[in-house]
Amino acid sequence: MPHRSWKYLSSREIADFRVLRIRQDRYLFQPTQKEADFVVCDSTDWVMVIPVTIDRQVVLVRQYRHGVREVLLEIPGGLLEPGELPEQGAVRELREETGYECQSIRVLSRLLPNPSTNNATLYIAVAEGCRTMGVQTLDALEQIEVVLRPLAEIPAMIASGELCHAQVIAAFTLAGYACKSLLLE
Amino acid sequence: MPHRSWKYLSSREIADFRVLRIRQDRYLFQPTQKEADFVVCDSTDWVMVIPVTIDRQVVLVRQYRHGVREVLLEIPGGLLEPGELPEQGAVRELREETGYECQSIRVLSRLLPNPSTNNATLYIAVAEGCRTMGVQTLDALEQIEVVLRPLAEIPAMIASGELCHAQVIAAFTLAGYACKSLLLE
Question: Measured between CB atoms, which of B3, B143, B178 is closest to A71?
């Protein structure tokens, strides 16, 4: 739906990477009739999954993140493949990154990870009844450590900064409101 | 600290916008001795602030977001200016975007908004005792509506998707763990 103040005019591609295309969008700001450019990171949508085992452990992943040049503890996730539904992507990423399979998968409402400069939608999925099949399927440039932690410890891990990825924290919060069994104390 | 698998080699700037610089970082992945490039959005750090009035209303902002081309309900925030501390940026953004001042400001632990491709740190601040001074100070291209909502309604707004900005949701969660008075039910 057009916005009454911001009239979209045109786009100009700046760079095209595999996971990210950078462009500038030109707008007319109608209150002052001024034109302005805004940089947009045009990204494929991605999914993150909260995998919970029958004994209420969360299956986390620890990996190097090239944006911040740090090793982070997160939940599994990744970019959706062309034509893939969020629940399919969640099951695939869970299997590839951790070697776990789930008995049920449920996609919650959408989130926006960085809406001022990124157009991506982030889907949050909850995978319950998870159990290990024992084998990760990693890309040639992936190196992922699987870490099991009790669901009950998640709030303390957020409070201490051990979990500091904003999307991961939002995922746990959303899951708690959507699934009573996942509500954090 | 160097990572045992990922040896950073070099960077190449792709594009420089005011708020965002795009570069490619080259790494040597030591387990296979393969080199690979990773795109990084090099962004100034930013701060988001949860402003609460004496009668437990949250001061929210509604504005057009050019990344997703939608009007979103969020908390105030913005990029830190050079040399500015997060608490200073929080007070400034609160004043500029909403016309509110606060009696106390407290910065919580850092979050990472999008660590796989963005190097930014997101600081979360809690501003208490907020009251309106009545006048926003907006940039020529800003148009921001101030919206007051009871703190007690935030969980329902997250569950319904009315608040869908992952960083905003993470901010409320972190604030609830850090400040008992802000814990969401």
Answer: B3
